[in-house]
Description:
Elements: E1 10-14, H1 17-27, E2 31-35, E3 41-42, E4 63-64, E5 70-71, E6 74-75, H2 80-91, E7 95-98, H3 104-117, E8 123-125, H4 133-141, H5 148-175, H6 186-202, E9 207-216, E10 224-231, E11 234-236, E12 254-255, H7 259-270, E13 277-289, H8 297-308, H9 312-324, H10 340-354, H11 390-393, H12 399-414, E14 420-434, E15 437-450, E16 483-495, H13 504-514, H14 522-531, E17 535-538, E18 541-544, H15 546-558, H16 565-579, H17 585-594, H18 604-609, H19 616-619, E19 621-625, E20 628-633, E21 636-643, E22 646-652, H20 664-674, E23 679-683, E24 690-696, E25 699-705, E26 712-713, E27 716-717, E28 722-724, H21 736-743, E29 747-751, E30 757-763, E31 766-771, E32 774-777, H22 783-786, H23 789-797, E33 812-816, E34 823-829, E35 832-836, E36 841-843, H24 855-868, H25 871-883, H26 885-892, H27 896-906, H28 914-928, H29 933-942
Parallel strand pairs: 1-2, 1-7, 7-8, 11-12
Antiparallel strand pairs: 3-6, 4-5, 9-10, 9-16, 10-11, 10-15, 13-14, 13-16, 14-15, 17-18, 19-20, 20-21, 21-22, 23-24, 24-25, 25-28, 26-27, 29-30, 30-31, 31-32, 33-34, 34-35, 35-36
Amino acid sequence: MASSTxxxxxxxxxxxxxxxxxxxxxxxxxxxxxxxxxxxxxxxxPSELPADMKKGPYGKFAVDVDNGFAPYYRVDxxxxxxxxxxxxxxxxxxxxxxxxxxxxxxxxxxxxxxEVLKPKIPVKRMVFHEITPEAISRALENTRELDTSLVDAxxxxxxxxxxxxxxxxxxxxxxxxRGLSAGRVQSVATxxxxxxxxxRMAFVPADYWDLDIDLxxxxxxxxxxxxLATYHGTKVASGRDFDDAGKLKGRxxxxxxxxxxxxxxxxxxxxxxxxxxxxxxxxxxxxxxRPAAPFTTSTLQQEAGRKLRLSSRQAMRVxxxxxxxxxxxxxxxxxxxLSGQAVSAARRQxxxxxxxxxxxxxxxxxxxxxxxxxxxxEAIRPAGDSFRTPAQVSGKLSGDEFRLYDLIWKRTVxxxxxDAKGKTATMRITADLGEDKTAxxxxxxTVITFRGxxxxxxxxxDVDRYDTGAGESRLPEVSxxxxxxxxxxxxxxxTTAPPPRYTEASLVKTMEELGIGRPxxxxxxxxxxxDRGYVRTRGNALVPTWVAFSVVRLLELHFRGLIDYxxxxxxESDLDRIASGxxxxxxxxxxxxxxxxxxxxxxxxxxVDDLGDIDAREINTIEIAEGIDLRVGRYxxxxxxxxxxxxxxxxxxxxxxxxxxxxxxxxRELIAxxxxxxRELGTDPETGHTIVAKSGRFGPYxxxxxxxxxxxxxxxxxxxxxGSLFKSMDLSTVDLEQALKLLSLPREVGTDAEGTVITAQNGRYxxxxxxxxxxxSLTEEEQIFSITLDEALEIYSQPKxxxxxxxxxxxxxxxxxxxxxxxxxxxxGRFGPYxxDGDTNATLRKDDSVEGITPAxxxxxxxxxxxxxxxxxxxxxxxxxxxxxxxxxPAAKKSTTAKSTASKTAGSKTxxxxxPAAKSTTARTxxxxxxxxxxxxxxKSTGKPTTA
Length: 948
């Protein structure tokens, strides 16, 4: 502890280095701000448990399900250095402020820090939803105690996910494929995407016709479009009138036009009835439209997807950077409410930028749709008691950060603007076709007389399957009974569209409507189902893989309750009740895992124990047509065709073929073009063996068919020669000459001066030359057959480069790193682009791009990499305790927990620090008694063993 005569030192701990750098500038002297870089400890994998615990109650989940679901926590190996740094800073501090985010995850990080650091000084919980000088000042004045109910809710969710994943995932490994995973929310999200694809697969299109017609007032220009509504007094069918089976929706009062009828009608309107149209009715009514509410996490992700083409993960990463750098408020929230200061700031800015007439008489008040633990937050808005305009931040923000800030600013300001005003006119028109026959048309249009909030922002929309592309028209001034003329009329054919696939935006919207997931999980859920191979993207659409079909089918048949939408939403509500202190975590986990003795909730463990036999073949088989099944195999999906008395034919399914595109016709086409994968090319003149082209699990290839007499040599089975097709070759057109060339590889190019043979061959990573153990990449596959010895020697005369390209200048310069004070650049490396300051390298993440990465994001990646420390030092630290076990034996006698604590502490200490470390351990044990009584009671009741 610092001397009482010196200035008090206060240690502030946050999660992120970026957040720390921003806050330290607002706190001034007397404060040290340090980042924990996320969670410092978590549930370990069972294989990572201490040897004496692997066979005990923690051995299966790292959670003792029979004793209050007590978790066993372990400090992450990569965070031991960080923990040591925090403890060192704590020794010189007089007060500790835990300033992690104010949601459940942030509260849990604060609690773990408290448990591991065991401070002997006063501890305060400091929370804020924006990083501005005013907000930080208010947070310092209004600290609070740690909210153990929020901690319990986060811990319950973590244990719940561990139980769900560790019980259900092994079933997927055994019955579908290794490496798959199940999760309480990810599996439900996958089910949503699969069910939509099933609807598309079952969809039967229907054809219908109408007219593409433009009308005009005689003698005046400016034609306007109209829609055919009736034919001979009967409603004309549109896409909305058909169901997904291609049938009319039980209606007999509509007429379905075919091509002949529509063409005849168009011809009549272009000729004899051209000037026989009359305005039969005209309706005008006022138009008013309110602005959308400020952003919640869900609506931000949806709009960022629609308007900026950002994935949910990208949107949240950019939003987090904006928050941590003090540009916007906290980005994980269910609430659309604005504080009084924010409302005032928005109204003031509207008046200044657009005029006082754009400010409504009274402030607009918004509230969230659901009351939950996240409701305490504000909506996502620009930070501060006065907002910076996009123009004011354009010099500091660029790329995605600027675009997202601009979107948030516009939405916030628009939410406090006046309604858009105007009038909507609907015109009904009757065409006299002769012989007492008529056709009816409608035309509508809206005239905006006062733009209101539309001057700043208009909300985007998702794809509408019934949208024909015909929008509103600007209508001429007309009156009832006025004559109109046909400017142009053409028959237009249409085919009904299947339900649109989910995009990330529409999937987030659906999950929110169903109550599945929470703001902090949407992006992670969508990323997980893509990373696990359950969903891939095609443009903006989410397309499920065949593996997802197998997984969902297994879960539907044997774990129906776990992927029920209402049950999953109910779990989220239960976690909210635990967060608010209305529900006990132990009681809830007991009911979830062991069951509540009702048929509705039998419990996870009884369900897994009573699974019985699961037919893996049935789970992984989907009938495409009579006699043709799709099977999900270990190496991918394939078609299987039964044959009388013979082995079934198998044909690989292209990876880029979406499930709804694998129709019966397409399946037969694949079978006809590839057969069982063999296409006979001819006979090798040298060996007499038949050469065939095949479609294999790793792509198309050619091989030889060995006679039975040559299939074995002694006891060994002789392998036939094989060669993968070049990328420029096609399985259906490759010929015998090309096949024999491929089978001749590797090709001997020649020998160098020392007599070492140089060969050209094709490998997993492309074409290359090989001389002894020295390999050099070639640029094109065709070079394998064309490269000369002189050309090969020239390649070997050049210095060898790591990877495939010579050293290149930086891809981008990002300025000076605030920690190392060295210039940061983006470079292209062996494993992709990375940022570096010369000392520390950090690979760009999946959603980072060279064009879009900002200096702040680069500094954050480097800070995270520094916090983890070098990999080699971690390995050394793990080995060190083994040599010093004898010195630590007395500490091990206290208890299992103490043994773990001593062992973990020793792993990160040097010999010189042993004695102080022992005192520190004792001091921390004493300090643990001084922590919040409420949490201490909770810890006792759950019996949580923890490690430092």
